[in-house]
């Protein structure tokens, strides 16, 4: 089972231009609000119509602008779960599930979905009587009752508070692993996609930045936008001087690297936990002396903010609170960035 998408759509000044494929996996569309994630799902579901391109699901053409094919949503066999689950407020759990099963739903099949999604005892409850996790299970049961070939989940956890989100996320992970279908999961949360998904497609301003395996994406994002979305706090311009030399003025470092530096490298990044800090100001490779700017306390750790000069961008370092407080008492600190921690990025 697989989906292939290659579409373009313009709305005002916004241009969506995406091309990707996904198999039987949890495939994330990750990006900031307004980058085109939900619009992509709506085009696949048939709620919106692309200006051009094609969408193929398991060999069936759902949309092809050249061949003038555009199946209506009811014929696409696509399950779409909205952010707010879109349950019918005046229908019971049982009737909500039946709504996805056509004109003559069979009672025993409805009962099977109620068992599969652990909704026993809630059959006659209305949506307002359900918890967030129960509503999600009802929405998933209704979606699966329509026998879709693919599931589209549009930020299904965004409306939940943090404590409930953890519980519902675990339930969702278990349910989706049992279903065994292609799932496109839209989110702006790095944590959600890391916990739930296999591959990650990063969208930025309507186009795809990168498609990578989950662990590879977080370890080695390849573009500036992807690194930012992956949670990297420190991204600055860089100039490639040679195959193994890289000048980074904002950090006051000219890096000497063992690995070869790609020719298109124009930025570097480093995660806030991977920077070595010392009160010893003696010269060292791939390091510089920075001024202590401020200390920002967080709940479980602290962020030490340093600057190479008043005109350069800040370098942010996360560490144990007690250690950060000790370092913050010094006006100057030497920072060293290990080669393995340096992200080589292009625009």
TrEMBL record:
Pfam family, one: ABC_tran
SMART domains membership: AAA (SM00382)
Keyword rRNA processing assigned: no
InterPro entries: AAA+_ATPase (IPR003593), ABC_SmlMolc_Importer (IPR050093), ABC_transporter-like_ATP-bd (IPR003439), ABC_transporter-like_CS (IPR017871), P-loop_NTPase (IPR027417)
Keywords associated with the record: ATP-binding, Nucleotide-binding, Transport
KW ATP-binding (keyword) present: yes
Residue ranges of domain ABC transporter in the record: 1-230
SUPFAM superfamilies named among the record's database cross-references: P-loop containing nucleoside triphosphate hydrolases
Molecular functions per Gene Ontology: ATP binding; ATP hydrolysis activity
Official protein name in the record: ATP-binding cassette domain-containing protein
Source organism of the structure: Eubacterium ramulus
